[in-house]
Design a protein that fits this description.
Elements lengths: L2 H6 L7 H11 L10 H5 L8 E2 L16 E6 L3 H16 L3 E2 L8 E6 L4 H20 L4 E6 L5 H10 L5 E3 L7 H10 L4 E3 L7 E2 L11 E5 L1 E2 L10 H5 L3 E2 L2 H13 L4 E5 L16 H8 L6 E5 L8 H7 L8 E3 L7 H6 L6 H14 L4 E8 L6 H14 L3 E6 L17 H24 L5 E9 L7 E4 L5 E5 L8 E9 L3 E6 L3
Parallel strand pairs: 1-8, 2-3, 2-4, 4-5, 5-6, 6-7, 9-12, 12-13, 14-15, 15-16, 19-21
Antiparallel strand pairs: 10-11, 17-18, 17-20, 18-19, 20-21
The structure holds iron/sulfur cluster.
Function: Catalyzes the methylthiolation of N6-(dimethylallyl)adenosine (i(6)A), leading to the formation of 2-methylthio-N6-(dimethylallyl)adenosine (ms(2)i(6)A) at position 37 in tRNAs that read codons beginning with uridine.
Subcellular location: Cytoplasm
Family: Belongs to the methylthiotransferase family. MiaB subfamily.
Length: about 500
């Protein structure tokens, strides 16, 4: 603890018994704000306000001097980017990043709720944190991210892991400085999870992970409510940032020398639907392509909102890359209906046809769930045939995982687990085969590769990505890290390419 913290500390940390007593009182305590999935489902008409006046509270500006933080991130790019924001907030408070969790003064677990497996990992990590807290009671342990938005999770943490100091959700990340202060000087666990989404807070600081590739949020939340998905509950209603704020952020990244920007949203194709003027993702990309930044990607797309104008803009090329990640989830219209995906197999195939007509070299990748409750063999075969018809070059494939609070979690499922596993294996075999075939087509071709650094497996080899998101390994001088260079592909594996630098 630094001097400022010592002078401000008024109370000792509680014992477990005290903590449990406090737990009993919390439900009547107005300052305790737990999540509520029913409330999170509501979509209120109220407009979202945009705030440009964020600043760190005066008394928290130096609180982290000579102190360190460690954030462990689980899940998607949205979470990765939230972690960059939290790291930015902590560094404005004087904290620096610790290289190891056990050495940090503030430890945050930025959690993911998409699958049971992801949640189990977090609970496993909490088991490791208990002895760290015992050894150093001053360390502040916080749980944030999507799991914090789930009632069941918050109650479990409060009951079984009372050494946790604070729990906050996805809508109030900007409140981290104030919550940290409360956790430091308050006896009880600080719980502040807003069930209703917050406003949009611009100008939040960001400690970006790299100097080449950057994430830019273009919107938050999701209104689709697919029956298996917890995201609309944990991330709230769709809220789009204003185009001028996004454009300015991308321009600044270009000025800072970034080579690639990925626009983020749970459903980026819904961008602009909530804006009071006619402006969608296609319009935004059309403006962004004028910015002098070599590569612009976006993720994740929903087929339903992928409009013709967007396809026309993507066809203009330039810095807009022809790789589209387009989750389909199932190839069976019946399953898509019970998933409430709002598109059929035929709608999806028509969309792919339209995209390929305008972008003949496009790389399509997808997400697929197998073993959705009561999926039949026939319905699964429909998925396999759709994968073949579209020719996906990569797919994130999963066995369905029930998420408490979603409609599908209440459905009885007769499909045995071993059948689901066997289906996943068959699907993966097909996807791998298609990936290898797609990779082999590059042999002999010259592709532009953004060299990101040394290969993780071999420091003598450099690695980077093509416009279509293919990993390429090559031997080249390290001075080329950060550059986009031409590479002739000589060899292909299922998930990566190998090549030589083209020098003439
Ligand atoms: S569109 Fe995506 S984020 Fe939204 S509910 Fe469906 S699967 Fe979840």
């Amino acid at each position: 603890m630094n001097e400022q913290q010592k002078t401000q500390q008024q109370v000792m940390k509680p014992t477990t018994k005290e903590h449990l007593e406090r737990l009993q009182q919390l439900h009547n305590d107005a300052t305790y704000e737990p999540p509520n999935l029913k409330k999170a489902r509501k979509r209120l008409k109220k407009d979202v306000d945009i705030h440009y006046d964020f600043s760190i509270p005066e008394d928290m500006r130096l609180i982290g001097e000579n102190q360190t933080y460690y954030i462990r991130t689980y899940g998607c790019q949205m979470n990765e980017h939230d972690t960059e924001v939290m790291a930015g907030l902590l560094s404005l408070m004087g904290y620096t990043e610790a290289s190891e969790m056990k050495e940090a003064d503030v430890i945050l677990l930025n959690t993911c709720a998409i699958r049971e497996n992801a949640e189990n990992k977090v609970f496993g990590e909490l088991g490791h944190l208990k002895p760290i807290k015992k050894e150093n009671p001053d360390v502040i342990i916080g749980i944030c991210g999507c799991m914090s938005q789930e009632e069941g999770v918050v109650h479990r943490i409060m009951q079984k892991h009372p050494f946790v100091d604070m729990i906050f959700g996805t809508h109030n990340i900007h409140r981290l400085p104030s919550l940290l202060k409360e956790a430091m000087f308050q006896k009880a666990m600080v719980v502040e999870v807003w069930s209703k989404e917050g406003d949009i807070i611009e100008n939040l600081p960001k400690q970006r992970k790299g100097k080449l590739k950057a994430w830019v949020n273009i919107m938050y939340g999701c209104d689709k409510f697919c029956t298996y998905c917890i995201v609309p509950y944990t991330r709230g209603k769709e809220r789009s940032r204003l185009p001028e704020d996004i454009i300015e952020e991308v321009k600044q990244l270009a000025r800072d020398g970034y080579k690639e920007v990925t626009l983020l949203g749970q459903n980026v194709n819904a961008y602009g639907k909530d804006l009071p003027f006619d402006y969608r993702l296609g319009h935004l990309l059309d403006e962004l392509r004028e910015i002098d930044i070599p590569r612009i990607r976006f993720t994740t797309s929903h087929p339903r909102d992928f409009d013709d104008h967007l396809i026309d803009v993507l066809a203009k090329g330039g810095n807009l890359l022809d790789h589209i990640h387009l989750p389909v989830q199932s190839g069976s219209t019946d399953i898509l209906r019970v998933m409430a995906r709002r598109h059929t197999r035929e709608d999806y195939l028509d969309l792919v046809k339209k995209i390929k007509a305008k972008l003949p070299d496009v790389t399509l990748t997808t997400d697929i769930i197998v073993g959705f409750p009561n999926e039949t063999d026939e319905q699964f075969e429909d998925t396999l045939s759709l994968v073949e018809t579209v020719g996906f070059e990569h797919a994130f494939t999963f066995i369905y995982s029930p998420r408490e609070g979603t409609p599908a979690a209440r459905w009885k499922d007769e499909t045995p687990e071993d059948v689901k596993k066997e289906r996943l294996q068959r699907l993966n075999t097909l996807v791998n085969k298609q990936s290898k075939k797609a990779m082999e087509r590059y042999i002999g071709e010259v592709v532009d590769v953004l060299i990101e650094g040394e290969s993780r497996k071999n420091p003598d080899v450099l690695a980077g990505y093509t416009k279509r998101n293919k990993l390429v390994n090559l031997k080249a001088p390290k001075s080329l890290i950060g550059e986009i260079v031409p590479v002739r592909i000589t060899h292909a594996k299922t998930w990566s390419l190998y090549g030589e630098l083209v020098t003439e």
